[in-house]
Amino acid sequence: MECLGCGACCTTQDDLGIIHTVADTRGLxxxxxxxxxxxxxxxxxxxLGAIASAPLVPSPHGKQCAALAGExxxxxxxxxYDDRPSVCRKFVPGDEGCLRARxxxxxxxxG
Length: 111
Ligand code: SF4
Ligand code: SF4
Known about the structure:
The chain has helices at 22-25, 30-33, 86-89, 96-104, and strands spanning 11-12, 19-21, 37-39, 51-53, 56-59, 62-65, 68-69, 77-78. The protein is an alpha+beta fold.
């Protein structure tokens, strides 16, 4: 399972978007930070404080993170890869969430 060029887990079909903690947003470029939408943590966990949703843009697969460049499934790449938020680092190629995302984007599980 290859992440390079994939980007399926950077797409979504709801409005919640890619969740960043506030700590995640430090060091991100201004063009990205300006699009972040602050939200209260649904469980009110104070230690985490506010969370934010990444700016989303229309995508053939619903919506995709504004930091994603290229085409999902072939040339996708994260423009803020080195500073990507913690939630993005939790996706493990081949795990349940990964496979679900790839399937949603019409990709097979063996490519
Ligand atoms: S974790 Fe899975 S869905 Fe996300 S980029 Fe890698 S292979 Fe694609
Ligand atoms: S920040 Fe990068 S890795 Fe995370 S969802 Fe956006 S494009 Fe994908």
